[in-house]
Amino acid sequence: MKKKKYLSLMVFSLLLFTPSIGHGMHIMEGFLPSKWAIFWAILSLPFLIVGLKKVNKVLKADTNKKVLLGLAGGFVFVLSALKIPSVTGSCSHPTGVGLGAILFGPTTMTVLGIVVLLFQALLLAHGGLTTLGANVFSMAVVGPLVSYGIYKLLKKENKNNSIAVFLSSALGNLMTYVITAIQLSLAFPDSVGGFTASLGKFLTVFAVTQIPLAIVEGIITVIVMNLLLEYKAEGVVDLETIQ
């Protein structure tokens, strides 16, 4: 019982002590041309629809799963608010989506991701409403898909769980920024080298800050996951029925 209270306290603490750093998250408000803003929003919609169905199932489940879902959401909110300016119109930060993708699957994180991005856009001036679709696609669609796929692949090959968690979280983070670089390059191709030259520039700039951040996120995710596995061993949480 004490362990469950402690786990609930973790969720509350993540939501309460969230840092508000910087003036933007991912691609900022109004930065993308309207055609690209609409394109990425439409592309994200199917994942959101599937995710809503999965979240609904979790909310109808026992309190244990609801607490874990809250923890996953709080984890995303805290890490994605830690921003380091990276390039005009965007920034670098952890994403936190790997943990929830491992526990609940990738589309569930699409729902949690859009909630976090909306909250930060409206109340913290991080990101924006017009660029919400693009930010959701990079952080809450592709990132979780990569994290989930890598974790499942490594576990299938009987790799150490901590290594699987670390790589899935870190690479999911990096792929988020590969997609962001692609989005910016498509919207603003280089005047001479076009899309390819622009992509090379964005990826180079992002790599300076994002690679260390991805490593840190991987380590933090491993720590949280090991804590959850400890609770599982003590019968406090049930991870077997989640993905």
What would the keywords be for this entry?
single chain; 8 helices; 243 residues; two-stranded antiparallel ribbon; globular; 3% strand; mainly alpha; 2 strands
Quick summary:
The protein is mainly α and 243 residues long.
Report Rg. Answer: 18 Å
Strand content: under 5%
Count of DSSP H/I helices: 8
- The helix content is over 70%
| Biggest sheet: strand arrangement | 1-2
Q: What string gives the helices and strands in order?
A: HHHEEHHHHH
Largest sheet: 2 strands, antiparallel
Number of strands: 2
Distance between the termini: 24 Å
Structure description:
The structure is a single chain. It is built from eight helices and two strands. It is mostly helical and about 240 residues long. The longest helix has about 40 residues, at about 195-235. The protein is globular and about 55 Å long.
List the SSEs and their pairings.
Blueprint (H helix, E strand, L loop, with lengths): L1 H15 L17 H26 L3 H18 L3 E4 L2 E3 L4 H8 L1 H18 L8 H25 L4 H27 L6 H40 L10
Antiparallel strand pairs: 1-2
Helix pairs in contact: 1-3, 2-5, 2-6, 3-4, 3-5, 4-5, 4-6, 4-7, 5-6, 6-7, 7-8
Keywords: Cell membrane, Cobalamin biosynthesis, Cobalt, Cobalt transport, Ion transport, Membrane, Signal, Transmembrane, Transmembrane helix, Transport
Subcellular location: Cell inner membrane; Cell membrane
Pathway: Cofactor biosynthesis; adenosylcobalamin biosynthesis
